[in-house]
Amino acid sequence: MIKKCLFPAAGYGTRFLPATKSMPKEMMPIVNKPLIEYGVDEAIQAGINAMCIVTGRGKYSLMDHFDKNYELEHQIRGTNKEALLEDIRATIYAASFTYIRQKEMCGLGHAILTGQELVGDDAFSVVLADDLCINQEQGVLAQMVTLYKQFRCSIVAVEEVPENETHKYGVISGQEIKHDLFRVDNMVEKPELGTAPSNLAIIGRYILTPDIFEILEHTVPGKNGEIQITDALLKQAKDGCVLAHKFKGKRFDCGSVEGFIEATNYCYENIYLTSDAPNQSHTTVKY
Ligand code: UTP
Questions:
Q1: Measured from the CB, is residue 111 less than 6 Å from ligand 1?
Q2: Which one of 6, 49, 260, 285 is least enclosed by Cβ atoms within 10 Å?
Q3: Looking at ligand 1, which residue's alpha carbon is closest to its atom 18?
Q4: Options 2.40.50.180, 3.90.550.10, 3.40.50.2300, 3.10.450.710; CATH of 4-272
């Protein structure tokens, strides 16, 4: 089934400069937990245990985060602070972590193509960690894995956005084949205002079948000279089938300052403060 999750995390995160000058955007914390850890936990909850991370220059802290820190652990052993490391320890033991560097930042499609060596020949999932998704019953990735088992084709997660925001997203149109599930017939990356085919915007969760790699290899750079995953998915949709799943749950665009603040407030009130763990260390939640 879906056993691997690819995390494209090589971007510069320019909207958060200067914070992201030397710190990866994916390591920015929502309360006390870095964005990427929320994504990894969502993948684990979906039954996925191999995390494949596409990194870039200066992103060593991503690797360090999913590794032991013997000095620190020795220092706090036996104190009540040990509980603060429980979640990340469990995450580290529940999954494997492999890394590959994207040599040039040529867009999300290029980052996914870079990950081919790590994900291999099977269908895989993709999480953009700066989209934080939370759903108490079943995480967004788990919802998509369930759908993949039935339909066996690429699936994108979509959300309705206001019309004046469609230009920030890849936008799909398609026929609703069952409740909240669409068969994609068109897909446009960041359409000009007023030209979007619908208000269903693609967010940072995908399940991709491995033929996407060959399509990406032949995809010519689109907007801003970047290889767009949307262009490759549109070809897949035209040649075969791509589904769009209007997911259940909340999504925060933590790549923008406003979304990041909103996510922080939400997680502080609904996860951190309601935690029953000692000194509120746990941010355990279903995604
Ligand atoms: P974004 O465009 O949202 O991220 O890419 P960014 O470029 O880092 O942010 P800004 O716009 O400059 O603030 C979506 C995801 O794709 C990854 C990013 O790390 C992010 O997780 N990405 C993007 C890559 O890994 N490589 C790329 O070449 C581009």
A1: yes
A2: 49
A3: 11
A4: 3.90.550.10
